[in-house]
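Morning. Coffee machine broken again, so started the prediction first thing and wrote up yesterday's gels while waiting. Chain of 572 residues, entered below exactly as on the submission form.
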Amino acid sequence: MEVKTLYDANLNNLLSARFAYESLASAFGKHVEAWQTTVVDRLHRSQWSGATADQVNADLQAFTGKLKAADEELILVGAALAEAHRSIALAQSRLITVMDDAKAAGITVAPDGGMTWENDPKAGNFAGPGAANKAAALQLRLRDALSEADHADQEITRRLRHFVDNATSGTGLNSATAEADRKASQGRTDIPDGKAGPEQVKAWWNGLTPGEQEQLIQNHPEQIGNRDGIPAVDRDQANRITIEREHDRLQNELDHLGPEPEAMKQLGPKAEIESPAHVKWKEKKAELEDRLAGINSLQSRLGDTVTPEHPKAYLLGFDTENKGHAIIAINNPDTSDNVVTYVPGTGARVGDNLHSDIERSDAMVGAAWRAGQTKTTSSITWVGYDAPQSIFPQAANDSYADGARDKLHNFETGLRVTHEGAPSHNIVVGHSYGSTTVGYALRDRGLPVDDVIFVGSPGVGVDSAKDLGVDPKHVYAGRGDSDAIEWALPENPADLVTDGASQWGTKIMNGFADLVPYSGFHGEADNHLAFGRDPANGRFGGREIPTDPGTEHSDYWQGQSLRAMGEIIAGK
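Came back before lunch.
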């Protein structure tokens, strides 16, 4: 649909058609009622009996059934026209807002959607130095409005054609057909249960009009925003509602936490301990502040000005259960050529460390652009699972990876299902325990990805790349020469902070101890870590990515390793 077509659409005509059809359906319904009371019921009370009476009564009942079925179909046609008016009006309203915002920014929108503006600072209508960035953001909104209108047009046309076919063939006079149509209409906005996969969810979502979708987003944002199979733009809209509500709820809880209790409790004349009330209050305050810091990081990135160097962000998942979950994409994965999912490890949560994971996604988008400037890349930070929050004992346990397998599988499947146009080049990156999570999902469920990257891995659940279900030529791994993950040994994955820490100089970085000196891993040793053979070991069978000298556990998003990841993501 073109800009001019939607902008000039006369919704009054559509509204008039809706009202006319609803009036027709109402009048027809009254005739059906009159037929029932003045003919059928009267004959039934006449006490006429015999074979002829039985036949006549049966014929009348059958005819009455046809009338009632037709009445039901007419009502549903009116409802379809009402939905057409609501959905086209919604798309038109969004288009008009885009046009108004463009005008205010000094940007002209052509009938075909093209945008122009005055670049000369000396001109009276100079659009300003940020016009190109504003135009890029407006272009996305314009595309969404036109797409909504197209979708509404196609879906309403499909529904009306169904009723036309029913009327033409006579099936619309069948009570079973009318009842099936009624149930389908009433159940259309019922959200599929948890057993429905991304493909089923996408088919259901596509069968809704933009008006129905908007209603679900507004009324059930927490369910729509976290459902694999629903497009990124719609998930983002729903999750922005949820995150705003959760921010307000948590801030209110923090504001009403109450005064700080007395810190110390006297045990005797010369002994005191921290009071249990103070411990509880302090822990709750720290938890709320940490959660709010993570939400603030998300909202800050979501609200950033869109520039070529700083693309639009989309919130594809959010909740505050347990330590919180968040899925944030840089660029729209449904329209990007390359889609990379980054799975962080120990400590990943909706907390004050979330900003660093988002920055890594931004870095990968930039690296991919530098490697292949003709294609677009979306990079997703996937904190969609309950990650371990401590090195020991939690990160020594594979239950966190086990618990994430289905979630990661469904998410990656959903990315394939909702992608528009030709299939994208999909990559998954696992860092630290996140690599274990990725490895377990690949091993046990399979992931629809083209390339796999492991960095700083304590093992991925298999001893050979060929056991991951991906061509080993497309399995990459890197480990820095100063990455302390080597100390995550199968005998005691916590050695790096227990016996190891007593023997070596230690500083804690991002949840892992940075131990020096470092023994290295590029020799002939067939080293096995906490969760299997080191994927960066030559015997694993994958391909090694380079790292800079001195690369520690959190240093992979810079230098040679970032450049290599960018080339892999870009398909180079």
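The CA atoms of residues 556 and 562 lie 6 Å apart. Going to sketch it on the whiteboard this afternoon.
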